[in-house]
Write a structure and sequence with these properties.
- The protein is mainly β.
- The chain contains 1 helix and 17 strands.
- The longest helix is centred in the middle third of the chain and has 7 residues.
- The two termini are about 25 Å apart.
Length: about 190
């Protein structure tokens, strides 16, 4: 199960607890953190991240910052997780399973199932309302996301998505469907 935590100051992160490890998704990275002994509740820690959870209240220490009094909410799906984290737009596809998230003004996140997520600063999109293109490049990675206002059918959803999306990562196109996400509760 995935929980999204909101801390004072609107800092948000998500945690997926497995038996001996938790994946902690921070704003620009996801880190696997091993479980360690705790007097009460759950505790996961390494040299960069420490996550403690007692009931619905959690504490996070990450990259030298402390976040206390964080409250958690269950995110039944990856779409819910993204929405609760404040992501503006999400797309995904199959064969292989992939997803793209756009948090305007913050980051683009692209992941292919079984690999690590890659993050880019959000570039200024080109095009118009019917066809937006985001193109982000680093020294070793190239991501172009084309979002077209064209209905798209996804086998996992009974309802059509409003956008057809092609995410081309390092020259390989990944077709799929996408939609804007509603505002997170309280945000």
């Amino acid at each position: 199960m995935i929980y999204v935590f909101t801390c004072p100051g609107d800092y948000r992160f998500s945690v997926r607890e497995l038996s001996e490890v938790a994946t902690v998704r921070l704003p620009m990275q996801t880190i696997a953190v091993p479980r360690v002994r705790a007097a009460s509740g759950a505790r996961y820690a390494n040299d960069r991240v420490e996550f403690r959870n007692r009931g619905q209240v959690a504490t996070l220490r990450a990259d030298g910052e402390n976040h206390t009094g964080c409250t958690g909410q269950l995110a039944p799906t990856a779409w819910d997780e993204a929405r609760l984290l404040g992501v503006d737009y999400r797309a995904g596809g199959y064969d292989p399973i992939w997803s793209l998230e756009i948090d305007e003004g913050k980051y683009l996140r692209f992941i292919i199932e079984g690999s690590s997520a890659v993050y880019f600063q959000v570039p200024q999109p080109t095009g118009d309302a019917k066809r937006r293109v985001y193109h982000a490049v680093t020294e070793s990675q190239d991501l172009e996301a084309i979002i077209e206002e064209k209905p798209c059918r996804d086998p996992s959803s009974p309802d059509p998505f409003p956008h057809t999306v092609t995410a081309t990562y390092n020259g390989i196109p990944y077709p799929g469907c996408g939609r804007p996400l509603g505002a997170a509760p309280g945000g």
